[in-house]
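B., you asked whether I could sanity-check this one before it goes into the benchmark set. Here's the sequence:
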Amino acid sequence: MLWRWKKILLVASVLAVCLGAFGFVYMGAVIYRASTADADHVLEIPRGASSYAISKQLNQIGLKHSPIVYRLEAWRRGKAYRPKAGEYRFSADGNLAEAMDILHEGQAIQHKITITEGLTSREIVGLLREDARLSGAIATIPPEGSLLPETYAFLRHTPRADMISRMQNAQQIALAELWATRPQGHILKNLREAIILASIVEKETALDGERGLVAQVFLNRLRAGMRLQSDPTTRYALLRDGVAVKKLSRADLRYDSPWNTYQYKGLPPTPISNPGKASFRAVLAPPQGDYFYFVADGKGGHRFAKTYDEHKANIKRWKQDTDGVE
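And here's what the prediction gave me:
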């Protein structure tokens, strides 16, 4: 009788070993089996998704397997295996094991948004609000000049308010570091004044080779006690009061606003845009010179002058070249 039980146990053990070996081979064949997809797929794994739900989504993109296989593989990987919510790209030649690695490591798709130099805070908020990849609301428009123009990477559903915070933090760090490099005796008293002037330079020219010369003109004017007479400040003054203009008139230049540097000496009360680092550097260390004036050259750049007579001659050339059309 004892011999029979020993025989039964031996057979059962052999069967268990065979089944285990078969299961091991089968599991390996399934989790390393190539996807049946003919193209890459993007999946969004929602927060709190169950193992069954994740398995179902992976099946739908060509990673064919039983939900039991997914659960067993997750169990084999141990408690450390934690698939993360997010948006993921799975290659057409991938397999289930690689997909589970991607989910565990959180290799979510990085999206990008580029904030160009010279945009106002309201315009930047508008871009964020229009971007469907982001989520949440922006309660208030951030202060003008407090956002750093840059290309930012983010995950889908990142809160818009978080993006604003990132831009503000990036601006504070980047500009504070640059401000610390300013030469001794700089006419601008503090970081805020530098941001204000950089925001004006940013709106005056988009040419890297001109930023320093434009900054030189404005700094020379500040030292001489002259008005800056910057068109973009007048446009901003009008825009603040809900008046949009395509071409400034003489009447516009007389508009009574502390942001209108044709009417008020010194810097305006706030920045008029969000300047980039290049314009900020130009304000801190422009080339030395005696330029006090500049006017458009009709070709996207400017002509600079040291005296008012030279400036009038440049204006005459501009009118001849463009027929007086801006």
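One thing to flag: Residues 14-22 have pLDDT under 50 and may be disordered. Otherwise nothing jumped out at me.
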